[in-house]
Every structure is written in structure tokens, then in C-alpha cells.
Design a protein that fits this description.
- The strands form four sheets. Strands 1-6-5-4-3-2-7-16 form an eight-stranded mixed sheet. Strands 9-8-13 form a three-stranded antiparallel sheet, with no helix packed on it. A three-stranded antiparallel sheet has the order 11-10-12, covered by helices on one side.
- It is of the alpha/beta class.
- Helix 14 crosses helix 15.
- It folds into two domains: 355 residues, FAD/NAD(P)-binding domain (3-Layer(bba) Sandwich); 111 residues, no CATH class.
- It is globular and about 65 Å long.
- A hairpin with an 8-residue loop joins strand 14 and strand 15.
Length: 495
């Protein structure tokens, strides 16, 4: 039940109603008159700012909306889209034990996808039993968790992050809302769900990056050096990928990629591509894309190593220079579209492009230093230290130029509560760029089902902090564990 005092503080609908994904009638929020606010900048009060519509951000919002509808949540995305790879072309489930490690939001999402296809007489599994789906179906189910009747307390912003502070009594994030302008969100709690850790780094949280275990800080320094031969590329994040969705036509030819109408593609750029490696062209017929990544309705997930952008420096630029992301996205997507065009024109006329993703698949950004750090030794020893999220994949799977790139032994990751709590920032919870060493991050930790479970834990942590009247760092593990178990999340030993 929302008391009269808290209801009177619900805000944000006057100026940004056209960008909200919900329909509520609420009095506009009061402007803050503090001296550090620029004149004319609308300032509103919320309880939680969730930055990023990655899988973990959606899960966090879902758990908050269900457990405490009185908490007002501002969900900020870098565009009018879901940034999660589940809706951006990662359409074959990456889990060695999907049904057992899923709970809460991720189980609801899986069940929703399966139900959608069953109602249409289709299967959501490939012959090996892995969950498969089209990106638009994944998005439909995910949107239902953060808009409409399921989330009446959630406001959505298509916005860029401008400034943020968690020092002193005033905590806020300032965002530039698409088509509206600058808006300041006063908040009490932060959840940074972004892969890039943009919000946490702006707040001054320390981090590690790439295969480097040194600690950096964007506010006080030092900051990491650009990856190069002189530092062994140690600061390079993993390669990123453009996860195009293809369609294999059973008869006749696919629509020509050369005629693709997209603001992300200039057909004239094809002339600068050059030929693909003939080995990859020949192998494409029996590739993972064509034989395993078989989606409903004849579609395919393009996720081959030759489609990873090969320059580790550009992944670094993506993370640390947000102003360049638009241009990088277009450059990389255009490059990948041209590779599919080459395949189509050199032996695969029945293969075309079904969907161009709005966001690149960013596998890795910084790892925010937490109150606890989950390590490769923890992974191998099956440490259950204050576990709040479970995932299952291989011991090590890293997309970069250094070997070994994979250790295929199946491992269960048991993420501890302290890995979500940013060191020296008690009001900040991190749900994607969590505190691990680089080897542990390259296990199940970076898989989407694990991220969903971590996000659920972040949401449960905020709910418990609110109930107890303390900062998230002061909530006991037992309280979080109980909240998660009530929603079906796994927090115990599974193997």
C-alpha cells in the first residue's frame, strides 16, 4: 500500500510523458531549487535510478516492481530500445543447465518465449534442446516486465548520461532525454546495469579492465592506457560483435543484401571490404550459424568468430568514449552486413538478412571493484560465499587474440553478494560490470542467464534496504537470500 506522503512524491510525467512506456496519471514532480541546478532544468524525485536496459537491469526492475510497487524507478536506456543481447540478436541460449539455473525474471522470460511459440505450433528449442527464439519475440516478452500494468511505478527514458553524484545527502543522475533535453533525477539508490559501467565510473567507483588486475578510477585516476603492443594489450576488453539475424530461404533466393534499406548501411561501402577468407566461406555451409543456431521461422543467429570485430582497440574506445559509440556502431554493423553480402554473392544466394540489431553485442567492459571479488579460484572450488546468483557455462570463454580462448570444462558460477556492492559507494549496486577477476568474468558470469540472476539480486537488495531503512551495503545476506528464494532464484549448490 502506498501511503499519502509517498504517493505525493511520485513524479516525472509532465515533461517526459511521451517517452514513458507506461500510462499513469500522476502529479508532476516539484523542481529542486538547489544552487547547483542550472535554471530551467527540470528536477524530479525518484527512489531508484536503474541505468541500462541490459538483462540485469530488466531483472532488477522486475523484482523491485513486484516486491515494492511504492518504489519509483527511473529506467534509463541509451536509446529507445532494450540493450540486452536477448533482444539484439543473441538468440541461442548460452547455458549448460538452463532449466536448473533459471529463476525469477529469467524463468518467466523463458516460459514466456516457450509459450509464444507453442501457441503458434512451433518449438522454441533446436534439435539439441537449446532454447532458440527470434529477437523480436524476446523483446516482446521483456518489454512486458518493465511497462504497463506489470510495472506501474516504472518510468522509461531514452537518454544519455550527463552527470551523476552520490556524495553527501544529495544523490542524482542528470540525463539528456531524447527529444526533450536535460533532466535531473534525484534518487536514493543507484543500480548500474550497463556493461560499460558508465554510471559507476562517473560516480568515481574504481574498476579493473581487460586482463589487467590493476585498479583504475576515472575521477581521481589513474586511468587505463590504450591497449597496444607496449602493454601486451592487457587493457583490451573482449572483442564485440554485430549479431545480425539471418534467414535461410528454403526455395529461391533471399532478398539481395545489396538492396538492404537501412540507415545503418551504405551499399557503396561494399567496395572497400575485400574478399572473405575462403576457408570461412567454404565452412559456412556447416558452420555453427547454419547448423546449430537454427531459430524458428527459418532464421539464424550469426555469431561466428570471423564476425567479431578484430580490433581490440575499438572495444576500448567504445567503453571509454561514449561520444563515439554511434559512429562505432554504424561502422561495425556496416562491416558485418557487407560480410553477409559477400557470402550471399559467393555461393549462398538463399541466405539473407532478417534483422539488423540496434546495439552491438558488448561482451565486456570494466569490472567495478566491490566489497568482495569473485575469482577463478572461487569458480573452480565451488565457493558458496554469500551466493546471490548462479549460472552455468564453461570455465573460460574469452573472445580476444590471446590463448587459451576457451577451457570447455563445465562450471557453475556462484556470485557473492559483495561483488554487486561498489567499494566506497554504499548507495550504488552494480549488476552487470560486477567485481571479478578477468578469468571468472570469462566464465558463466558474463552469460545472460547469470546476468538476469544478478539483476534479480540487485533488485532484491534495494527492496530489503528500503524495508530496513539502510543503505544496500548494510543489508544482511540472509535477508537478500530469503527474498530471492521466495521468487524461485537459485542460491545454493547445484553440482
Amino acid at each position: 500500500m502506498i501511503d499519502a506522503h509517498r504517493w505525493s512524491r511520485l513524479t516525472l510525467f509532465g515533461l517526459v510523458a511521451c517517452f514513458c512506456l507506461i500510462s499513469l496519471v500522476i502529479a508532476p514532480g516539484r523542481a529542486n531549487a538547489e544552487s547547483d541546478v542550472q535554471p530551467g532544468v527540470p528536477t524530479y524525485d525518484v527512489d531508484v535510478v536503474v541505468f541500462g536496459t541490459q538483462t540485469s537491469g530488466i531483472a532488477a526492475v522486475r523484482e523491485i516492481a513486484l516486491a515494492d510497487p511504492s518504489l519509483r524507478v527511473a529506467l534509463v536506456s541509451s536509446g529507445n530500445l532494450l540493450e540486452t543481447p536477448l533482444a539484439q540478436g543473441l538468440s541461442v541460449e548460452d547455458s549448460r543447465d538452463g532449466s536448473n539455473v533459471s529463476g525469477g525474471m529469467y524463468k518467466e522470460w523463458r516460459d514466456g518465449v516457450i509459450k509464444y511459440y507453442r501457441q503458434r505450433g512451433l518449438s522454441a528449442s533446436n534439435p539439441s534442446g537449446r532454447l532458440t527464439y527470434e529477437p523480436e519475440v524476446a523483446a516482446t516478452v521483456l518489454w512486458s516486465f518493465i511497462k504497463g500494468p506489470a510495472a506501474p511505478n516504472v518510468l522509461f527514458f531514452s537518454a544519455n548520461l550527463v552527470a551523476a553524484s552520490d556524495s553527501g545527502a544529495q544523490r542524482y543522475a542528470t540525463v539528456n532525454v531524447e527529444g526533450v533535453g536535460v533532466v535531473r533525477l534525484n534518487t536514493r539508490y543507484f543500480i548500474d546495469a550497463s556493461v560499460e559501467g558508465d554510471l559507476a565510473r562517473m560516480l568515481g567507483a574504481s574498476y579493473r579492465v581487460g586482463r589487467d588486475e590493476r585498479v583504475y578510477d576515472d575521477v581521481t585516476g589513474p586511468t587505463p592506457a590504450y591497449p597496444s603492443p607496449s602493454n601486451g594489450f592487457v587493457t583490451a576488453p573482449q572483442y564485440f560483435s554485430p549479431l545480425l539475424t539471418l534467414k535461410a530461404y528454403a526455395g529461391g533466393s533471399a532478398p539481395k543484401v545489396a538492396n538492404l534499406s537501412s540507415p545503418l548501411y551504405d551499399p557503396h561501402s561494399y567496395a572497400s571490404l575485400g574478399p572473405l577468407n575462403q576457408k570461412n566461406v567454404t565452412a559456412f555451409k556447416t558452420s555453427w550459424t547454419m547448423t546449430v543456431a537454427v531459430l524458428p521461422n527459418g532464421k539464424r543467429e550469426l555469431n561466428e568468430t570471423w564476425n567479431d570485430w578484430p580490433d581490440a582497440g575499438l572495444a576500448f574506445e567504445w567503453v571509454f568514449h561514449p561520444e563515439k559509440r554511434k559512429d562505432i556502431r554504424i561502422r561495425v554493423l556496416e562491416w558485418s552486413i557487407n560480410r553477409v553480402r559477400y557470402l550471399q554473392e559467393h555461393g549462398y544466394p538463399r541466405v539473407g538478412i532478417a534483422t539488423v540489431p540496434q546495439k552491438l553485442y558488448i561482451r565486456e567492459g570494466p569490472r567495478i571493484v566491490g566489497l568482495d571479488t569473485y575469482t577463478r579460484d572461487d569458480l573452480v572450488s565451488k565457493s558458496l560465499r554469500n551466493c546471490v546468483a548462479v549460472g552455468c557455462y564453461v570455465e573460460y570463454d574469452r573472445h580476444d587474440a590471446f590463448y587459451p580462448n576457451q577451457i570447455p570444462t563445465t562450471r557453475y558460477a556462484y556470485v557473492p553478494l559483495g561483488a554487486l556492492l561498489a567499494k566506497d559507494h554504499p548507495w550504488l549496486v552494480v549488476s552487470t560490470a560486477i567485481s571479478t577477476d578477468y578469468q571468472a568474468y570469462s566464465s558463466a558470469v558474463r552469460m545472460e542467464h547469470t546476468r538476469a540472476n544478478i539483476g534479480g539480486a540487485a533488485g532484491a537488495l534495494i527492496v530489503q534496504a528500503e524495508r530496513l531503512g539502510v543503505d544496500p551495503a548494510s543489508v544482511s545476506y540472509g535477508d537478500v537470500r530469503q527474498e530471492l528464494q521466495s521468487r524461485g532464484y537459485k542460491v545454493g549448490l547445484l553440482n
